[in-house]
């Protein structure tokens, strides 16, 4: 059985990696006033962070179901099945859009997978699925492996300002108010598909150290892990952090990714995150 792998733009998998692994990507949109841009195609992360300095905060939107249908119908000419991996259904309707489209197309079986997370941590699922599909593995075997990964896959992130998350409806007003009053740098994570506070920490430095402690606890068994540092327009800080982490945790393979336009709209510039999974 020949299986295609689809994801959305919020996995922020570099184009060269998508091309190499034959990953099909459907974009979400970021909207400045009357101007709508498909992220990763019509606007880059660096262009986005420059735009928001001069304009009001944009809104975001999921892909139309018709875009999924068109993509799946095109894949049906070459593939028997599709695994479509998307950002958490608790913060976006994108996953549900894939489910709906999958029920509308004929000639191909669509298996939608809710990553229950986002960004390159979602990308860990996608790249694993693509590598397995390239080896000729079928959708059931791939999905079983993704569920196995879910047991060790974690991500924590910190934002400089909670107001974007609160305004976008991704975090409750009460939680945003508490954060702004105390000037804390709350550690956030996904729980039950939603973004919720994990711990409230006073400073950026202490918040980042706490994330490292959580990773250290996860990898102390000595098993091999891979991890990703995710930044919102803080590339130099991410590179420095990577060098420190590589020296501290030699059994972890680190890479750097970014919060792109759609997720960056909700987290704001300066956000930093760290995600990991057992190899």
TrEMBL record:
<dbReference type="InterPro" id="IPR043168">
    <property type="entry name" value="DegV_C"/>
</dbReference>
<protein>
    <submittedName>
        <fullName>DegV family protein</fullName>
    </submittedName>
</protein>
<dbReference type="InterPro" id="IPR003797">
    <property type="entry name" value="DegV"/>
</dbReference>
<keyword id="KW-0446">Lipid-binding</keyword>
<dbReference type="InterPro" id="IPR050270">
    <property type="entry name" value="DegV_domain_contain"/>
</dbReference>
<dbReference type="Pfam" id="PF02645">
    <property type="entry name" value="DegV"/>
</dbReference>
């Amino acid at each position: 059985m020949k299986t295609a792998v689809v994801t959305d733009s919020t996995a922020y998998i570099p184009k060269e990696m998508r091309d190499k692994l034959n990953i099909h990507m459907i974009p979400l949109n970021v909207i400045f006033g009357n101007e709508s841009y498909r992220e990763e195609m019509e606007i880059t992360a660096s262009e986005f962070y420059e735009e928001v300095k001069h304009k009001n905060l944009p809104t975001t939107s999921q892909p139309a179901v018709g875009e999924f249908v068109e993509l799946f119908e095109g894949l049906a000419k070459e593939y028997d099945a599709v695994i479509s991996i998307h950002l958490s259904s608790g913060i976006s309707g994108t996953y549900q859009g894939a489910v709906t489209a999958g029920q509308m197309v004929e000639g191909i079986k669509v298996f939608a997978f809710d990553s229950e997370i986002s960004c390159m941590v979602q990308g860990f699922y996608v790249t694993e699925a693509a590598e397995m599909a390239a080896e000729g593995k079928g959708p059931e075997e791939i999905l079983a492996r993704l569920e196995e990964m879910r047991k060790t896959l974690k991500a924590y992130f910190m934002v400089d300002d909670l107001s974007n998350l609160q305004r976008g409806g991704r975090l409750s007003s009460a939680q945003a108010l508490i954060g702004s009053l105390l000037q804390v740098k709350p550690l956030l994570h996904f729980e039950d598909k939603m973004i919720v506070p994990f711990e409230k920490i006073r400073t950026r430095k202490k918040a980042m150290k706490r994330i490292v402690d959580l990773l250290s606890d996860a990898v102390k068994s000595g098993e091999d892990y891979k991890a990703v540092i995710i930044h919102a327009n803080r590339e130099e800080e991410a590179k420095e952090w990577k060098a420190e982490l590589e020296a501290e945790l030699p059994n972890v393979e680190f890479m750097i990714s970014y919060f792109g336009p759609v997720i960056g709209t909700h987290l704001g510039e300066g956000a930093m995150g760290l995600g990991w999974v057992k190899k």
